[in-house]
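Continuing the batch. This is chain 6 of the set; chains 1 through 5 are on the previous pages. Same settings as before, nothing changed between runs. Recording input and output for traceability.
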Amino acid sequence: MRCKERYATTQLTKGLKAAKAFNAVTRKALFKVRNKYGNKKQTADGYTFDSKAELLRYDELQLLEKCARIHDLKVHPELIVTVSGPTVKHIPVCKVILDFSYYDGPSDQVVFEDVKGRDNPLSRLKRKLVEAQYGIKVQLITKGRR
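Output for chain 6:
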């Protein structure tokens, strides 16, 4: 009797795992997953952008790079925010992925940009953390300001 019960429970758990996997796949197929603000992902030159506004800004920056107004354009640069304490050093807190970084032509200073349709509290916090750790002021590019 024990063997039959054990066999039945293993078959039941296998069936439940298969059903959960099936439900996850069918859920994605049946219900389109929508982004928080209704943005649609865009791709260009092997990069995936979170919105159409970000793609348009990428096109603008590419034109500026061709005109030699900026140089060394990077897409999606990553900055790691760490915290140091008296007993431990450099504990990673979060990874901030910005949209663009480049060197401004005349001043030759590095510029970091983040393109947003609308700003939210999490992105404000991450920009403040980057500014506190690296001393970098991240430029926020919104729909009205380019």
